[in-house]
Specification:
heterodimer, A: two-stranded parallel sheet, elongated, B: Rossmann fold, Alpha-Beta Plaits, six-stranded mixed beta sheet, four-stranded antiparallel beta sheet, 11 helices
């Protein structure tokens, strides 16, 4: 047992400045890295991303000889390499929500809020840290998946189409088409895969701040990505067509597919950068709501 | 200095804190007493800026929590010991808190050692006992070396050695000139630890006073006397103006006279005394009496009071 005296004050002077975003970011990074679920989630993103790229590219590459013209026209080596993104969008949703809902679940949110007199700093720091971590991991995974996927197609006898090739050239190609990162739309599609996951993470985290409950936030997030499209499908087809391009899941699709290759998406999806803008707007709206509630509600 | 002025807080239909005003001065331990559900935790959350009062204000050295620029260095609190992420180590928990207010890493080790957790600091707190969590909570309150400290039921789950340690620690902190505000529903513990008292029931102030005055002004001093000539003595005492109550076991409970006077009167009456014992109600009894009509949840059997 130790004595009951408090050691002399070793703290530097704090008569200037205030506990700010920089301090809170450090703290949030410590919190994020010090729980196992973070590393498990990030490992799933990397493993699922590269693993599914290998699997799907291999299956599709092996089928080229048996594909009809219609299927060959839809053959998108970029999309195949990013198959893991479908799974990762839910992983980042859970990760983004848990960053805050685990604090509400355990009650440690009160410790967090009792160390800062500006609550919005906590929101900003959490978004910055989880956003940066997910973005870096997602981009690395997206590019690794892309290059690994193309290698797999090459192993199936694939060959890059000559520059300026059209979709007709692809349909008539005897070998599996392989895409270079410098091909039109490829770099953008791969890069936006990470951006899509970043925006979903921020959306999920903001939902967590609003709902303050892990199950609630994750349900809402999954509902937006999976259930909302089903509801829109039930609407009269004229309404379906006017709404579906604005669904977050379809904004993600718009960011990731190379529409010059995917003829069946022509006109259905927004342009990739418009999709980025709109999804950013969605996330910003929920973040604003989260900030408004955070400042007003009792912890 | 913590100041609450006319604070009211309602949750739905429940008035948790009702027009509550009090002051907690630096330099002494102030006990915050009340039955379970009387509004102690709510009041402490309002001090920490976690809950917003419906009306009135709570201030720390004259400022609202929201005006503090380095909150952790000005006010430290142990509110709920178990409110921790179970998968995080004690060290990382404290480090993450320290970083919010630019408190150096070395201070984390320092407070871990102070509360005696240095050997288990790298263990996940989900495996901690309640007593260990309390110690971690105390460490986090002390982390920023603040001048104002709040502890909500800090001895819960501690063994007798731990309770003694907390008592000494709190008095040491107050002795350094800090403001120390400790809630408890255990009156006996506060009688030993605190100098001042803020007593509430159903969210309302019952008393703000010193422990000494609280007992003195709320209890009538009585003297218990045993004597083979109890009947004679009782008459003599009554004649001297005392209230005398004969108990079933033959002892007399005397009010209105002190022990010295009772002894003198016995000598004067020529009656032998077998026992002469001044009795004073414990803080526990005073408190039970004062709050008996303010307890929300009564047990069916009378609670065993440990004093």
């Amino acid at each position: 047992m130790t004595t009951a005296t408090v050691p002399p004050v070793p703290l530097p002077a704090f008569d200037h400045g205030r506990a700010g975003l920089r301090n809170q970011v450090r703290s949030e990074w410590t919190k994020l890295r010090s729980v196992r679920s973070t590393w498990i989630s990030l490992a799933i993103i990397v493993v699922a991303g590269i693993g599914l790229s290998v699997l799907v590219s291999s299956v599709e590459g092996g089928r080229w000889g048996q594909l009809g013209f219609a299927d060959r026209a839809q053959f998108d080596p970029v999309r195949f390499s990013q198959t893991g993104e479908f799974l990762s969008q839910f992983v980042v949703g859970v990760l983004g929500a848990l960053v805050i809902t685990s604090e509400y679940g355990t009650g440690s949110i009160r410790t967090t809020l009792a160390t800062t007199s500006r609550r919005t700093t906590v929101l900003a720091a959490k978004l910055l840290v989880i956003g940066a971590v997910v973005f870096v991991v997602s981009e690395v995974t997206a590019f690794a998946s892309f290059f690994v996927g193309q290698e797999v197609l090459l192993a199936h006898g694939g060959r890059a189409l000559p520059a300026g090739s059209t979709i007709l050239d692809q349909v008539h190609s005897s070998t599996v088409p392989v895409v270079s990162i410098t091909d039109p739309g490829a770099l953008r599609a791969v890069f936006l895969c990470g951006v899509y996951l970043l925006l979903l993470t921020l959306l999920a985290c903001a939902l967590g701040f609003v709902l303050r409950h892990t199950a609630g936030a994750i349900s809402a997030f999954v509902g937006i990505l999976l259930v909302l499209p089903l509801i829109v499908q039930i609407l009269p087809s004229s309404l379906t067509h006017s709404f579906e391009k604005y669904l977050p899941s379809n904004l993600g699709l718009a960011m990731i597919v190379v529409t010059s290759r995917k003829t069946d998406f022509a006109g259905v999806l927004l342009s990739p950068w418009a999709a980025v803008g709109l999804l950013t707007l969605y996330a910003a709206a929920v973040i604003a709501l989260a900030a408004w509630l955070l400042v007003r509600r009792d912890a | 200095m913590i100041t609450a002025s006319r604070v009211t807080k309602t949750y739905g239909p429940t008035r948790a804190v009702d027009d509550l005003s009090f002051e907690v001065r630096p330099g002494v331990v102030t006990g915050f007493l009340g039955p379970n559900g009387s509004g102690k935790s709510t009041t402490m959350r309002m001090v920490m800026g976690l809950d917003r009062p419906d009306s009135g204000a709570v201030t720390i050295d004259g400022r609202h929590f929201g005006e503090l620029r380095w909150p952790l260095r000005e006010v430290g609190a142990l509110l709920e010991a178990k409110a921790l992420h179970p998968g995080r180590t004690a060290y990382d928990h404290l480090l993450s808190m320290a970083q919010t207010n630019a408190v150096p890493r070395a201070r984390v080790d320092e407070v871990l050692e102070l509360v005696g957790l240095e050997s288990v600091a790298r263990r996940r707190v989900g495996k901690y006992s309640l007593g260990m969590s309390q110690r971690l909570g105390i460490a986090s309150a002390l982390l920023g070396d603040p001048g104002v400290l709040l502890f909500d039921e800090p001895v819960n789950g501690l063994d007798p050695e731990g309770i003694l340690w907390v008592r000494t620690l709190l008095q040491g902190l107050a002795g350094e000139g800090r403001t120390v505000f400790v809630s408890s529903h255990l009156m006996s513990e506060m009688a030993l630890t605190a100098t001042d008292l803020v007593v509430i029931g159903r969210g309302q102030l019952i008393a703000q006073t010193s422990v000494h005055d609280f007992i003195a002004s709320n209890t009538e001093a009585t003297v218990l006397v045993r004597s083979p000539g109890a009947d004679v003595l009782a008459d003599v005492l009554r004649a001297a103006g005392a209230g005398v109550d004969a108990r079933d076991d033959g002892a007399l409970l005397v009010t209105g006279l002190d022990g010295t006077r009772v002894g003198d009167l016995a000598l004067y009456a020529g009656v032998a005394l077998h026992e002469l014992r001044p009795e004073r109600a414990s803080l526990e009894e005073v408190f039970m009496e004062l709050t008996s009509d303010m307890v929300d949840f009564h047990g069916h059997a009378p609670a065993e009071v440990v004093s």
